[in-house]
Every structure is written in structure tokens, then in C-alpha cells.
Design a protein that fits this description.
globular, 6 strands, six-stranded parallel β-sheet, Rossmann fold, single chain, alpha/beta, about 140 residues, 6 helices, about 20% strand
Length: about 140
């Protein structure tokens, strides 16, 4: 079982929460969002806990992976926090709109051996649709 924290409960975050909840080998343990109403909606639909801070969501010993679907300006902070906490990371694109912040993030996590993937959910959805048609 892979235990996740989800950073961000907006449109894309809600979609990721459903994917995690539907997977038999994944469990959404924490949701964090500055919008408490959005966080409550995800918590209610997935039976996860609401983290009161990014640190709580990311640094918990219960968490194996962090899925970052929050506002773009938070991505580099959450990537850095998750990498330093030794968590696997999936982050929605873009990492940041400022290449200097992207480079700084890369330097901050250089040498930390955790899986990290930057993704675009629409690409993943196309792969899933194609796969489902083949079944």
C-alpha cells in the first residue's frame, strides 16, 4: 500500500484524489489546501485527514509519496520539502513559471535520491483512455 499526501484540492487535485481512492494499492492519508472548503470536500469523499499545514502533510511518517496539484507558485517549495523528507514525488506541471526558481529547486534537491515525476494529467488521461479501449 502506498500512502499519499495530496497538496491541492482544486480541480486537478480532486481528480487525483479520485484516482488515488480508486486504486487498490493506494491510500490518500492527507489532503492539504489553503482553501479549507476544498480540503473538506476531498476529505469527505475519500475519508482522508485534513492536514493543518504543508509540513504535517509532507513530513508524516505515514506518508510514502506526495502528489503536488496545488497552485504553481507552491510547487518548488513542496517539491523541496518532499524530497528532503524522503518522499516520492509527482508534481503537476509546470514546476514554476520562473526558470530561476526551477533551477534553484533543482539545486536544493540535488543528490537526494527520491523518485520525482513532473506530469500533465491530460497526458495521463489519454494513456488511460487508450488502455481502457484495448481491454
Amino acid at each position: 500500500m502506498i500512502n499519499f499526501s495530496l497538496m491541492g484540492a482544486g480541480r486537478i487535485g480532486k481528480m487525483h484524489a479520485k484516482f488515488i481512492a480508486a486504486h487498490p494499492n493506494a491510500k490518500l492519508k492527507y489532503i492539504y489546501d489553503v482553501n479549507s472548503q476544498f480540503a473538506e470536500e476531498v476529505a469527505k469523499s475519500t475519508e482522508c485527514s485534513i492536514a493543518s499545514s504543508p509540513e504535517e502533510a509532507i513530513n508524516s511518517d505515514e506518508i510514502d509519496a506526495v502528489l503536488i496539484a496545488s497552485a504553481t507558485p507552491t510547487h518548488t517549495q513542496f517539491i523541496t520539502m518532499a524530497a528532503k523528507a524522503g518522499k516520492a514525488i509527482f508534481c503537476e506541471k509546470p514546476i514554476d513559471l520562473d526558470i530561476n526558481k526551477v533551477n534553484e529547486c533543482m539545486e536544493n534537491i540535488k543528490g537526494i535520491n527520491v523518485p520525482i515525476q513532473i506530469g500533465l494529467i491530460e497526458d495521463l488521461m489519454l494513456v488511460m483512455q487508450k488502455h481502457n479501449k484495448q481491454e
